[in-house]
Design goal:
Mean pLDDT: 92
Structural class: alpha+beta
CATH architecture of the largest domain: 3-Layer(aba) Sandwich
Shape: elongated
Low-confidence stretches: 1-19
CATH class of the largest domain: Alpha Beta
Strand content: 25-35%
Length: about 1000
Amino acid sequence: MKIFILIISIFLACTVHAAENIPRHALEVSFHIEENRIQGVSHIAIPENREIKIHTHSLTINSITLNGLPLEINDKESVLSINIQDPGILEIEYEGVFKGEQEDDAIENVGVVTRNVISNKGIYMIGGWYPLVAGMSHYHLRATVPEGYTAISEADEIKMIRIPGGKEYSFNFPYPVHEINFVAANYKIVKKTYQGIDIYGYFFPDDISLAETYIEHTKQYLDTYQKLLTPYPYKRFSVVENFLPTGYSMPTFTLLGQEVVKLPFIVKTSLGHEILHQWFGNSVYVDYAQGNWVEGLTTYLSDHLYKEREGKGWKYRKKILTDYESYVSPDKEFPLKDFTGRVDFASKAIGYGKGAIVFHMLKGLVGERVFYEALKELIDERSFQYASWEDIKKIFEKKSEKDLEWLFEQWLDRKGVLSINIKDPRVVFSNGGNTVMFTIIQSGHPYRFRLPVKIHSENGDITELLSIEKQKETFEIPVQGDPIEIIFDEDYDVMRTLSEEEYPPVISRLLGDEKRLIVVPENERETYDSLTTLFQKKGFMLKEEKDLKDEDILSSSLLILGFDGPVVKRLFGRPQETQPGFTFIVKENPLNAQKVLAMAQSDTKEEVDLVSNKIYHYGKYSFLRFSKGKIIEKSIDKSTKGIQIGLYEPVTLIQPQKQQNLKDIMGSIADTPIIYVGERHTNYEDHKIQLDVIKDLHKRGRKFAIGMEMFQKPFQKYLDEYISEVIDEKDFLRNTEYFKRWKYDYNLYREIIEFAKAKNIPIIALNLRSEIIDAVSEGGLDALTDEEREEIPKDMDMTDKDYRERLKKIFKLHKSPEKLNFENFSQSQILWDETMAHSIAEYLKEQPDSQMVVLAGVGHIVYASGIPKRVYRLNKKDYVTLIPDTVSLDETVGTFVLFPAPLSPPPSLKLGVVLTEKDDRVKIEEISPGSVAEKIGLKEGDIIVSMDEWGIGDIADVRIFMIGKKEGETIKIKILRKKFLSREKEHEFTATL
C-alpha cells in the first residue's frame, strides 16, 4: 500500500501544475473472483472550484472524503453532485458485484456487450465499474488480479509485479479520456516491435497460434494508416481475445470475441477497422452531443477502403444502400446528426452506412488530395479532444476553399436519402449528331448532388457528372454514334434509394421489413422450433400454414419453413429442390415486389439449432447453405448495376420471300407432344387454322386430344357424351352452358367440334368454373370458400415478371381500372392459366401415348407465359406455339407466327329480337325493323315458350336452337301474349328464316 500511496502522491501533485484544467483520477482495484466482486478506491484530484457529478452506477459506496474530511451522501442516488470550494482530492471507497447476468440477445447489435463480468472465465469491466467523473479525466490505474490472470487496460506503459497470491498491474495513460476499461483472463502474450511500436497479442492458450497472424496484419494496417494519415498516436497496440462476443476498440488495444478471432476473414476486415479507431474515436474523440461521425468515417476508410482497393468499392456501397433500404423503416429513421451509437440494424445502416457514403460524396466533391489533407489536420488539431461534425465541416471548408454548409446541412439534418426517377429518355438527332435527352425528377424536398452518368454507344462510352439541385431537371448529352444504353450512378456514388431492378431479394429485406410473418408447417413444427422462437423474439408474427391468407402474402415479407408446403407450391409452382444440411433462400414476393419471401429447409432439428443464431449475420445474401453449422454455400441474386435504361430497340423484320405456309411446317411439328394454336376469339380465320392443324394430325394417324379453353372442367361429362353421340347438339350446348359461360358465337367452333365427333377425337375441357375466376378477380384467392379451393390447383407459379407487366397493360384497358384491384385481376388470370395447364398435364399423364392440340386465346399462349411454360413445369414435355399476327415479332413471341387472310364466319341466322330473362321466362324487349320476328307478327312483351317444341327457359336456349339453321328453313314459335285486362294466351307462329 505504501508504494501505491507514493504513486498517488506523485500523480496528484502533478495536478497543481497541470496545464489542463481537468480532474486526475487514480484508481486502485482488486478482484475477488469467487464472490464476483470488485473492491476499489478512487482518488480524484479536482483542480478548481466547481460542481462535479460522479456516476456511481450500481456500485456500493462505502465512504467519500474530501481532503480527508468525510462527506454525507445519499447512497440511493446513482449520480452524486459535489461542490468543490477549493482544489482538492476526493477519495471514494467502493465495491460492486458483477456476476455477468445474460443480457438480451444482441443479435442485431453483434459485438456489443454492456454487462460487466467477474468470473472464472475472466474479468470484463466495460463501464460502471468505478465512480465516473462526468467529462474527461487523466487516469492512472493500479489493479490486483489473482494468479493465472493477465490484465490489460488503456496504457502506453504497463508494469506488473508479482505479489502473494497474484499480480499487481500499473497502467499509465498520459492522455485525457472520458473513461477507461479493464480486461483480465488467462492469456499468453506474444510481442513484436514494428517502427517503434510495440505490438502485442493477448490470446488464450488454445488460440495462441493466431497471435502471429494478427500481429503481421496489424503491422500492415499500421503501415497503411501511418502513410494515409499521421503517425500512430501511441507507443503500443494490443490485440486482445475476449471470452465474451465483443468487437471493441479502446485506446491502445482492441477486444475481439473468442469465436470472432478464429474467423479467417477478421484479420482482413474487422481488425483494420478497430486499428483505424486508434486515430478516429480513440485519439480524436467523438462529441456525442453533436452526433457520432467516427463510425461513418472509420467504415469508409477501413471496410470500404479494402473493397475499393480490390476494385469492389461499388459493391460495398451498393450493400450500404441495400441495408439502408432494408432496415431503415420510417419509424426507425432519424437524421445522421442524431446518431450516437448502433443499437440495431437500422441505426447501423444510418450511422455506419449513410455516414460512410457522406464521406464518399465529400471526397468526390473536394478531391482525394484535399480529403486526406483535411483528415490529417483534423487529427493534428483535435488529438485527445472532442471533435464534432461542425469541426469537420470547418476544416474541410478551409482546406478545399469551398462552402460546404449545404452538403452537411442536407446530409446531417434531414431524415432519409434522395430518390430519383428518370423520365422520358430518348435519342434525337440535332445539331448534326445524336443527342441523348432525359429528365431527372427528385421525390420530396430536392437535394443538391452530383450524379454520374455513362452512355454506352457503338463508338464507346461517354461519362458525365451532372450537377443537380432542382426537383425536375432536363439534360441533353451529345453522343458520337448510336447510343445503346444509359446508366445512372453505376458505381453507387450517391446516397439514394435503389430502383426495383437494382434491389436484390436478400435476407436483410426480410429482417428489416415492418410486417413479417413466419409460416409454420403443420407436421414439422418441432424441427424448426429454435428458428421459430428466435424470429418471434425479433418481431415476426407466427402463422400456421393452414391459416395463411393471400392478403398476408400480399402485405408481408414471409419466412416459410419447409420447401414442399402448399404456400410454396401455390406461389412458385413446385417445391424447391432440397439439399443436405440447412438451406435458406430469399426470393422476391410474387404478389408484391416490395416484399420478399424466404424459405428454410433442413434435414434435422440439429441442423436448425446449429444455425438459427447465424442467419442474422448474413443479411446481404439471397442463398445460404450450411452443413453441421458451417456455411458451405452463399450467393446473392443478380440485380442491375446502376439504373440502366436501354436506348436501342432492334427493329424486327421478316423476309416475305422466305415465308412458309402451315402445310410446310406440319411435318416438323406433328410429333411434338403439345401443339398450342392461339386464337383471337372472334377471328374465324384463326379457327380455320386450328381445324387445319387438327385435320393434318388426324390424317397422319396421330393419337391426340383437343384441349379447349372454351369449356369448363365440371362439364367434361357432356363433352364426352356428345363426342360419343349419347346426346345431341342442343343438349350438349345446354348442359355445358356454353352460351352462359363462353358467349362467343358457337359457329366459330362448330366445325372443330363436329370434326372431333366425326373422328372420335377426345375434347378436354381445360377451364375453371367462371364463378371461381370472377370471385378471385373481385376479392382475390381469399374470397374463395373451402369447397371452391378444392377445385383450384394446389401449385401455381406467380413469379413471371414479364407476364405480370403484360397483364398490367391489359388491366389498364378496363373501364375505370383505378376502381379495380390489379393484384386480384393478376391472381385470377394466373389461376385461369394454371387450371388449364394442370388440365393438360393431368390428361397427358393419364394418356402417356397421346398428344394434345390446345386451343386457347392468344394471350394465354404468347411468349409461352400463360399456359405452355406452366405445363412444361409440370411434365417437361416439348411444345410448339402457333401465334396469329397480333403482337411484335421478337424471337420469344412464339415458335411460329401465322398471317392468315381474313375470313368471314359462317352466317348466324337471327330472329331480330332483343331478349331479357325473368323468372325462368324469356321476354321480347325489342324487335328490329324488317326482321323475321316483325314479319311473322311477334310483338314486344311476348314470352317465348318453345321453338319447334324445344322448350325455352333462358336466352341461351334460343341461341342453341338457332345453331345450324339454314336460310329458307321453317320453324314454329309458341309465345304467351297478354292483352289489356286479360289473361295470357298462347299463340303459335310459323317463320321462314
